[in-house]
Structure formats: structure tokens, C-alpha cells
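Lecture notes, part 5. Sequence design as translation. It can be helpful to think of inverse folding as translation between two languages: the language of shapes and the language of residues. The source text, in C-alpha cells, appears below.
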């Protein structure tokens, strides 16, 4: 299997988890302009995602993204770039495994920032090799997504709830392993049921304060009007958004692609610069 920084199939060799500290002189809000062979778009970086913002600016100012391709494009989902191997590559070559030599600690500012249409987010390796969800040092994606109904979002909430309850229950049961074993050995189902009920009540109380449990009013407005990819919320760091040129993102998302979702005709970042 090829190695690639996919949103779901991140099979890249482990990277060293290190990161140079951000420059204090960097403004709290920074805009970056991308010129592509499909037009120009501008992103604005969020002030709260300090490490991602500083790293992105560093790469832009160094010319890192100039000449790179959007190497993975999926209509109604996202467009992805940042693989250094995509510069001056041959037609049809497999891309997605290249990166810089470090990762960036996750900076989830959720539910304030989420995967609405135009969101700028960091790709990363999968949870199996990257349980802390650290971001790729260079690869990013821009959400195109699609519009959801309220019922769609409620279904996603119920799915998230089931996963949260399952994981929390297993964790708390492990924390009470000795007691659970004792109650089971006593062969008194009623006592074991009391323990289970107690754990579930505790979990339900915690879920009421968990933002992953329920979409905010603004999320519902955005996902049912402009659209996005809500199932990625809280899993990947969103560190900015497109503020100009969303039509360019739409055009890129509709190009014909070949194997591994690489555009058949190159979609190139001609230049990127801070404004």
C-alpha cells in the first residue's frame, strides 16, 4: 500500500514530533494569498491556532508552497496540497507521502472553528500511529464539502454520542476493574447492574458539557446553508478559512482526477505570499 497523508488513510512513516516556536512579531491575524493556474484565493489564519499559524507563515515566506500541486482532489469534500514531492513531478506519479521533518501539536479550537465550506485545516497521520492527532508540518486541505439537512446533522450527533458513550464506558469500567471483577465473582447481577448504571449516569452528565455531543447553532446554520464536512470536526486542526476566492476552490474541486484522486491536469500553486 502506498503511503500518503490522507484524511483517513495516513500511512506515512512516523515523523519526529518537534516544532520551532513561533515568532512573537507575527500578527494575530494574517492573510495569505495563493495564485494558482485556476485563479487566486485568499485565506485568513486564526489567532488562536498559534503554532499552526506561525508554521504556515514560515513556510509561505520561505517559498515552500510555490510550484507545489493540489495533489488530491475530491469533489464535494476537499482539495489537498503541501507535498514537496509534487514540485516538478512527472505526470501520473503517486503523490501524498512527502512532508517536512516535523509535526505540529494539535490545536483544536472547537466548536469555535470547524469544517465549514472554505475551512483551512491540517492533514495528519491516522489515529493508530498518531493518537494525539498531531498535524502534518506542511500538508493542508481546504474544505469544499456539501450542504446537509438538519436531520443529517442530528444523525451525526447520535453517531458521535454512541462512540463517545462506548469509549467513555470502556475507560471507566477499566478504572473500576477490581470492583467489577469482585462483583462478577460474587455472582450477584443486581450489584453489577448498579455499578453499570452509576458509570452510565456519570458519562451522561459529562456528555452534556462535551461540544462533540451536539452541534452549535452556528454550525447548524453553516452546514445547512454553505455546507462543509462536519464528520471531521474535532479530529483535525482547523487553523484558517478562505475569505476570498471560494469560486476558485469550487473550480479546482471539479477537475477530472485519476488514480489516488490526483488531478489528471496539474493544479499548481504558482505562488503564495503573506498580505
Amino acid at each position: 500500500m502506498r503511503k500518503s497523508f490522507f484524511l483517513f488513510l495516513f500511512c506515512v512513516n512516523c515523523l519526529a514530533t518537534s516544532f520551532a516556536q513561533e515568532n512573537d512579531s507575527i500578527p494575530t491575524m494574517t492573510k495569505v494569498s495563493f495564485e494558482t493556474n485556476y485563479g487566486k484565493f485568499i485565506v485568513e489564519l486564526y489567532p488562536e491556532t498559534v503554532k499552526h499559524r506561525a508554521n504556515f507563515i514560515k513556510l509561505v515566506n520561505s517559498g515552500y508552497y510555490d510550484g507545489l500541486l493540489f495533489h488530491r482532489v475530491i469533489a464535494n469534500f476537499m482539495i489537498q496540497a503541501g507535498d514537496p514531492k509534487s514540485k516538478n513531478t512527472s505526470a501520473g506519479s503517486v503523490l501524498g507521502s512527502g512532508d517536512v521533518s516535523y509535526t505540529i501539536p494539535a490545536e483544536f479550537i472547537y466548536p469555535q472553528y470547524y469544517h465549514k465550506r472554505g475551512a483551512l485545516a491540517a492533514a495528519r497521520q491516522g489515529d493508530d500511529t498518531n493518537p494525539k492527532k498531531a498535524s502534518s508540518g506542511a500538508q493542508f486541505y481546504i474544505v469544499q464539502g456539501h450542504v446537509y439537512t438538519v436531520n443529517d446533522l442530528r444523525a451525526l450527533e447520535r453517531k458521535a454520542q454512541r462512540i463517545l458513550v462506548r469509549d467513555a464506558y470502556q475507560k471507566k469500567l477499566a478504572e473500576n476493574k477490581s470492583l467489577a471483577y469482585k462483583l462478577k465473582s460474587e455472582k450477584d447481577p443486581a450489584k453489577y447492574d448498579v455499578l453499570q448504571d452509576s458509570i452510565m449516569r456519570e458519562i451522561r452528565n459529562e456528555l452534556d458539557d462535551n461540544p462533540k455531543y451536539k452541534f452549535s447553532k452556528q454550525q447548524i446554520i453553516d452546514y445547512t446553508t454553505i455546507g462543509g464536512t462536519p464528520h471531521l470536526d474535532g479530529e483535525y486542526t482547523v487553523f484558517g478559512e478562505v475569505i476570498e476566492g471560494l469560486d476558485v476552490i469550487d473550480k479546482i474541486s471539479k477537475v477530472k482526477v485519476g488514480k489516488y484522486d490526483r488531478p489528471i491536469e496539474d493544479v499548481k500553486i504558482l505562488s503564495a505570499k503573506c498580505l
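The translated text above is only one of many valid answers, since several sequences can fold into similar shapes. The CA atoms of residues 112 and 216 lie 9 Å apart.
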